[in-house]
Amino acid sequence: MIPCMQLPKPIQVQDVGLSPCEHRSVSTDGRIVCKKIVEGDPEVSPSLCRSCPFKLVNCAHFRFSLRLKSASPLLVRFNGRTEIWDDGPPELTLLRAACAARVGPVPDTMTCVGCPLRMPVQEITSDRTRNAQRANRPGKVVPFPTREAVAAVG
């Protein structure tokens, strides 16, 4: 019997799923930071960037500043053991927000979602659209012949 060896799979770079954002940049020391965070650490992670209130509003008239509320870990010592209790992931909230078209404050993001003056800034792409864009990339496809099992004689 001839053993069938599998071909190695090509290394694929995982897409983090972040759309380009005009507020996100890389600092000189290599951290990914958000220019709109005025209270808290401006360093952002992909999951934190996905939960940004600006993604929900997505309007060119929206002016805002963000507050990053991160849970402070609590050091607990009992019965000779030490544990660190962490409440959960950091949370982005609006510190101040206003609409440049209406020249007024925005109390929450839901007031901007149904606004008739809304002008989208970023194109919202779904997973299907993103996968279709990946499939349409030019590239060289090399078909491999199918393997047939051959009995060894001898």
Sequence-ordered SSE layout with sheet pairings:
Layout: E1 24-26, E2 32-34, E3 37-39, H1 46-50, H2 53-57, E4 62-69, E5 74-78, E6 81-85, E7 91-99, E8 104-105, H3 110-113, H4 127-135
Parallel strand pairs: 3-4
Antiparallel strand pairs: 1-2, 4-7, 5-6, 7-8
Summarize the structure.
This protein is α+β, with helices and mostly antiparallel strands and 154 residues long.
Can you put this structure into words, describing what you see?
The structure is a single chain. The chain has 154 residues and is α+β, with helices and mostly antiparallel strands. It has a domain of 88 residues. The protein has 4 helices and 8 strands. The strands form 3 sheets. It has a 4-stranded mixed beta sheet with strand order 3-4-7-8. Strands 1-2 form a two-stranded antiparallel ribbon. A two-stranded antiparallel ribbon has the order 5-6. The longest helix has 9 residues. The radius of gyration is 25 Å and the shape is flat.
Number of helical regions: 4
Percent in helix: 10-25%
The gross shape turns out to be flat
Structural class by helix and strand composition:
alpha+beta
Percent strand equals 15-25%
From the alpha-carbon coordinates, what is the Rg to the nearest angstrom?
A: 25 Å
Q: Report the biggest beta sheet as strand number plus sense, adding barrel if it closes.
A: 4 strands, mixed
Question: In which order are the strands of the major sheet placed?
Answer: 3-4-7-8
Mean pLDDT over all positions: 76
What separation lies between the terminal Cα atoms?
A: 11 Å
The total beta strand count reads 8
| Unreliable sequence segments | none
Order of helices and strands: EEEHHEEEEEHH
